[in-house]
Amino acid sequence: MREEDERTRKQRQSYFKAETLSRKTHFSIDEVRSLQVMYAELIAMGKMDRLRFREVMYSTFDITDDVMLDRIFRVFDGNNDTLVDETEWVQGLSTLLRGTLEEYIGFCYFIYDINGDRLLGRDELFFCLKNCLIRSAGIEEDVEESIKDIVEIAMKKLDADKNGKISFSDFETAVKDDPLLLEACGPCLPPAKAVNDFLTTFTTTYKPPKISLRMILPKRTGLHTSRPGNQLHAGSAFHGSNSQRSSPVRKSPDRKSPGKH
């Protein structure tokens, strides 16, 4: 009996955590719970450290550039403890997969700002572009001059005040004028196909356990169910059986963009 009570307590805590994360991200409660299940499976063999994270990004989202993978890990690891916990996992995926333009601007700028001084210089642009272009061309000597040319083009497009540095304001203004400039300093977002494939399957691939109505409502409202075995779909627990579900994408989540820290 005590074991069952402990399991119920953990399920309740997990659900309420999912509800909180849903309010802070672009995911519904059901989707957050699926991401919790996915995370639990991923860390079953060990913690989500840099190496494990890179493997997941590579295999799931087709992100292959080593520099970008390390930088994306830095974005996800919000508390800088060299691990991605469950909350960081959900919040990071919210930006990576369903971010607003403003969130993407902050995300990409943080990725490119290697030294963290909130100014992008030619050396940082060269560093970000080098690996992905060499990977594509395969020959470093033939690519280096081309990279320098691309860096100059990027500087011309993004450096509004022509001081040789791209401030966050420069980058934000340029990208809002032309969103195609978002990844001008190197690809750091997953391909659209990988995103679509994941978003259309992850809730069925990683199914969370059902939550009984009586497990949730007494704690929140003081109401009790008289019929045992009542089952409620987790994402509908507080909306009534006939209510319409809102879109999982919200325009203004609570979580700030990493580029604006």
Q: What do you see in this structure?
A:
The chain has 261 residues and is mainly alpha-helical. The chain has helices at 2-24, 29-42, 50-61, 66-76, 86-98, 101-112, 122-137, 140-158, 168-177, 192-205, 213-221, and strands at residues 119-120, 166-167, 211-212, 231-232. Strands 1-2 form a two-stranded antiparallel sheet. The protein is elongated. Residues 220-257 have low confidence and may be disordered. It comes from Allacma fusca.
User: What is the average per-residue confidence, as pLDDT, rounded to a whole number?
Assistant: 82
- What is the CATH topology classification name? Recoverin, domain 1
In percent, how much strand structure appears in the residues?
Answer: under 5%
For the report, how would you describe the main beta sheet? 2 strands, antiparallel
Which residues sit in consecutive blocks of at least 5 with pLDDT less than 50?
220-257
Order of helices and strands: HHHHHHEHHEHHEHE
Number of DSSP strand runs: 4
Oligomer: single chain
Task: Provide the descriptors you would attach to this structure in a database record.
about 260 residues, mainly alpha, Recoverin, domain 1, two-stranded antiparallel ribbon, two-stranded antiparallel sheet, 11 helices, about 60% helix, about 5% strand, elongated
